[in-house]
Write a structure and sequence with these properties.
Helix content is 29%, strand content 36%. With 326 residues, it is an alpha+beta fold. It folds into three domains: 51 residues; 164 residues, Jelly Rolls (Sandwich); 75 residues, Phage tail protein beta-alpha-beta fold, CATH 3.55.50.30. Strand 12 and strand 13 form a beta hairpin. The protein is elongated and about 115 Å long.
């Protein structure tokens, strides 16, 4: 019996020398093998590129987030201050609401404020702008110059300043004031704008509307717009007058109080004579008018002087009291 090794050798001898493959076949096989190798190498490089690209993207994102992230100190930047609260007024960071009471309390970015039934609030915004909230109103402070009105009614007095003013975002549109006093109300998917001074622009669904002093715009939920007139001295403004921030008039001339009252009540100021106007500039007042409505404050302060006022339509005239000699 042949050994396995001898058997293998005899089989090889019987097969003879292996024929060389045709040149064309050889080249085809070589080309296919080379292509396969290149493809494999390319896939490997592609995987490496994807890995490096992903790492680079993560790095870019991390840098971007680092610049966008607001440090805790900036989050505490004061955007407004509660100057007066009447009735139920609450504030929250997140979803936890707490009563504010009647205290001067700072409000920072992301804070929410709401008034309950019968409640009202007066805020002092950056730059001296007055913001007032009627009952059952909710707002959120976003950043300097912008806030969100979720529901209810606000009154903003930008003290006649000009420029881009404030942006008031609401579910029914965006209002932007340009040096003005105005009231904005959100209810039932609609929006009502009353302009007392200056002008206000409202952007809604690609539409830009403008309201000017003495005008009221009502935008319903379907996009309809109704315009009407409202006097700057109309009784409808009285809720905002009652929560107005009162100036410090102790040691100040009567003319300063008179000018403030005229603007807060929407009246055109007129003096009976040049002598009366001069008298108002020289009479010095003493005391305070804290928490008094504008006309009540004027009544109280002028009672100690030889001046008085008379309202007629949209005009407030300052006169000399009878037998004052002016």
């Amino acid at each position: 019996m042949e050994k396995p090794q001898d058997l293998v050798e005899s089989l090889i001898r019987a097969a003879g020398r292996r024929a060389e493959p045709p040149e064309d076949a050889y080249r085809q096989v070589l080309a296919a093998a080379t292509a396969a190798l290149r493809e494999k190498t390319a896939r490997r490089k592609e995987r490496l590129w994807v890995l490096w690209s992903g790492a680079a993207a993560v790095l870019v994102l991390a840098v971007a987030l680092m610049f966008q992230w607001t440090p805790p100190g900036a989050q505490r930047e004061e955007l407004a201050r509660i100057e007066r609260a009447i009735g139920g007024v609450e504030r929250a960071t997140g979803d936890v609401w707490q009563p504010v009471g009647e205290s001067v309390a700072p409000l920072t970015r992301g804070m929410k404020l709401r008034t309950l039934a019968g409640g009202r609030a007066g805020l002092l915004l950056a730059g001296g702008t007055s913001l007032r909230l009627a009952a059952e109103t909710e707002i959120m402070l976003d950043e300097p110059g912008r806030l969100y009105l979720r529901k209810g009614t606000i009154y903003l007095d930008n003290r006649g300043s000009v420029g881009t003013g404030y942006r008031i975002e609401t579910p029914a549109g965006t209002a932007r004031d340009i040096g003005t006093q105005f009231e904005l109300q959100v209810a039932g998917g609609g929006l009502r704008l009353r302009v007392r001074e200056g002008r206000v622009e409202i952007g809604r669904a690609g539409q830009l509307l403008e309201g000017v002093a003495g005008e009221q715009l009502e935008l319903n939920a379907l996009g309809g717009v109704t315009r009407s007139l409202i006097a700057t001295s109309d009784a409808a403004w009285q809720w905002a007058e009652a929560i107005a921030p009162t100036p410090d008039i102790d040691g100040k001339p009567a003319a300063e109080l008179i000018a403030w009252v005229a603007r807060e009540t929407g009246h055109r100021l007129r003096y009976e004579s040049a002598a009366v106007e001069q008298r108002a500039a020289t009479v010095i007042l003493h005391g305070n008018i804290r928490h008094l409505a504008p006309l009540a404050a004027l009544d109280a302060m002028l009672a100690t002087t030889d001046l008085e006022y008379v309202l007629g339509g949209d005009t407030m005239e300052i006169r000399a009291r009878a037998q004052s000699g002016l």
